[in-house]
């Protein structure tokens, strides 16, 4: 068991898994860049994250959400080739990442 920068306990397996578990997201700071299903492609100095969660044309990595509209984009619009797969920490975050906002559709009473 490790800890967040604020001292909160943290499972070691949660560090650099692409999902911020610490209140300050420090478990995702300074992660090594890797490629592969479910891993962060790169995170450095507060730049945006790019995910490589697609395993096949209709299959997403375990824990990823598949946008029924077929497009998941990070930030404003799709600047790179979009994937239908979205990291689960983007669900119910108040930002529509799927083309038709399916990632926010069933979030009544849910907030992050």
Automatic annotation (TrEMBL):
Pfam families: Ldl_recept_a. It is found in: Endomembrane system; Membrane. GO terms for cellular component: endomembrane system; plasma membrane. Gene3D superfamilies: Low-density Lipoprotein Receptor (4.10.400.10). Disulfide bonds join 4-22, 16-31, 92-107. Keywords: Disulfide bond, Membrane, Repeat, Transmembrane, Transmembrane helix. It is a single-pass membrane protein. This is Uncharacterized protein. It comes from Cherax quadricarinatus. The lineage of its organism: Eukaryota, Metazoa, Ecdysozoa, Arthropoda, Crustacea.
């Amino acid at each position: 068991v490790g800890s967040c920068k604020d001292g909160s306990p943290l499972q070691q397996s949660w560090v650099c898994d692409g999902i911020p578990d610490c209140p300050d997201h420090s478990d995702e700071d300074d992660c090594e860049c890797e490629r592969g299903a479910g891993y962060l492609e790169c995170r450095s100095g507060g730049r945006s994250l790019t995910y490589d969660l697609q395993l096949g044309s209709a299959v997403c990595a375990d824990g990823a959400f598949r946008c029924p509209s077929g497009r998941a984009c990070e930030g404003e619009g799709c600047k790179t080739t979009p994937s239908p797969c979205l990291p689960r920490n983007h669900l119910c975050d108040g930002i529509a990442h799927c083309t038709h906002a399916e990632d926010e559709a069933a979030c009544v009473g849910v907030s992050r």
